[in-house]
Amino acid sequence: MRGYPATLFHLSGVRKGGRYGTIVNRYSVAVLTLPIGLPDTSASVGTVVYRLRSEPLPPRAGVPVHLPQGRRPRMVKCSVDPAFAQLVITEPVVRITEAAHMGWRLHGNQMIGRLKDRKPYGKIVGLAETMADVLAEFPASALSGDSP
Questions:
Q1: 51-62 burial, b for 16+ CB within 10 Å, e for fewer?
Q2: Host H or E run for residue 32
């Protein structure tokens, strides 16, 4: 996908127990392999992860930041490196993520994107293209490893 190796698949996450019994959350997922590892960072439209009852955060990432209060749809970002997040999660990146109703996260040398529910193959290809659009908005220093 625009020079990034890509993997596309469907995923079901099962949450057992609780007030509503077993809940199955279905997602369409795209993974782009990046040339370098980046700090664990995520941005997501809230409705993508609402039924998980937890935020889509990288491990040890700290407190999620809502972008900004009152935004519709609700958006959440988080990073193990707040300076890196400020560098890459710009207003254009937020708008692209919001328009696609998606969530994405950076984990090592992978960017993992997700859409709520099981989507047709063409929509998952579109997700991967949108993820490449997000990466294209990152400053060159972020993708070269020279970021703060």
A1: eeeebbbbeebe
A2: strand 23-45
Residue 25: beta bridge partners?
A: 13
pTM for the whole structure:
0.82
Length of the chain: 148
* CA angle (56, 91, 136) in 5-degree steps: 85
Calpha distance 66→9 (Å, rounded): 28
Burial of 114 (0-12, 13-18, 19+ CB in 10 A): buried
Q: Report pLDDT digits (tens) over 40-96.
A: 888 888 756 544 445 445 555 555 555 555 556 677 888 888 889 889 999 899 999
Residue 52 half-sphere exposure toward CB, CA atoms < 13 A = 16
Q: Give residue 50's pLDDT.
A: 47
Residue type at position 84: F
Q: Among candidates 54, 59, 63, which has minimal Cα distance to 25?
A: 54
User: Residue 83: which residues within 8 A CB-CB, separation 6 or more?
Assistant: 147, 148
Tokens 């710009």 appear where?
90
